[in-house]
Design brief:
Distance between the termini: 51 Å
Low-confidence stretches: 14-20
Mean pLDDT: 88
Keywords: Signal
InterPro entries: DUF4920
Order of helices and strands: HEEHEEEEHHE
Pfam families: DUF4920
Strand order of the largest sheet: 3-4-5-7-6
Number of strands: 7
Largest sheet: 5 strands, mixed, barrel
Number of domains: 1
Amino acid sequence: MKKLSLLMMAAFISVAAMAQNDPKPAAKGVTYGAGTENKDAVTVAAMDEQVQKSGSFNGRITGKVTEVCQEKGCWMKVEKANGETVMVKFKDYGFFMPKNIVGQTVVLEGEAKVKEVSVKQQKHYAGDAGKSKEEIKQIKEAKKEVQFVAAGVLVI
């Protein structure tokens, strides 16, 4: 009986701990991380232009989510006007996004820089996104890309 009680207590604690890390559903007005406001946000294109000119960007951007990590929601991508995407990570790995956020428009507050992404990291992201083994095998070169580190996210 004592073992059963301990087992039940351990199961309860595990479920409670996991529930704490589950992000809220992706609904309009929901914030993640430190949160942000829907004011003074620039387009992804304007942010990208500034990063290309000066090497960095600090502030708010708005864009449509095109992809999200299907493992934990630990990264997402937002669409550029030309159909490409910007990788978004979350400051200090401090929060996650719901997996159903694809298609939503968001305001992100944080910092963007150009980063080199290794083949190993690209393959990791592809696996997280549910890409096929064939698609993952085709990744053979490191690449430079603009990455945004968000301290807060607002679904609009």
